[in-house]
Amino acid sequence: MIHPTYSLFLAIYLAHLLTDFVFQTTRIVSNKHRGEWRGYLIHGVTHYVAVTAIVTLADPHRLPTLSFQLLAVSLSLVHLLVDWAKVSLIKSHRIPDNAFAFVLDQAIHLVTVIGAVFFLVHPSLQTFVLWLNRIRLLQESILLARLVYVLVIFCGGYLIPALIGPLWKDEGGQTTREHQEVINAGLYIGWLERFLVLTALFLQSTATVGFILAAKSIARYPELKSVRFAEYFLIGTLLSVAIAIGGAIVLLKALYGTVAFGK
Predict the structure, then answer these.
(1) Residue partners of 21: CB distance under 8 A and separation at least 6
(2) pTM of structure
(3) Beta strands in the chain (DSSP E)
(4) Are 141 and 253 in contact (CB under 8 A)?
């Protein structure tokens, strides 16, 4: 059975995600960036309705209580305040409008949701102790998983270029900057590829690995007409997948005591 604190958190955070990424249209975003109050009003009302509707489904007895209604209104107002602050900081060029701003914005929203849940539920000290004990029991497994992911994704990203670097030759007419951009793109693609392959194998979804490799090959198809690039691409991909497979074997053996990539 899910603890009431956890259930309430899931409900409110789901409402936040729906408000920001499903119900928030491009027009609302544009209105907010132009500083129009109508965009903020619609977004705030949507947030309040989403919170009350989903919490009603998860925990119906909370809806008529004054404490919950005050919390829902306050959380919606704080949500709007965070959004306004983000837009203002971006427009004043104090922070860039990039992934950092997005992650920071969502992290603040997450913290406000957690704070609201704890304010409403008041979980006991025993609940905290229980959660800490569960984390301690999983601490070794979590640490091992982090270690393997870092080794596979990032260390592999340095090992592979070092091994196959001699096979790479600059394309004719390509500037140094363009060449470096190609190298960086390959590095980031490799990171994502090994993360997806490692996760797919850990979840015993071997078919997903085939999909990943097929998608990568289709994206690179025009360049594969070059024999030298095809060799470079093939060797790099096989090394990347081999490293991910090695990491998955370590995780499966350490956490489950067996290695089985198929269910």
Answers:
(1) none
(2) 0.71
(3) none
(4) no
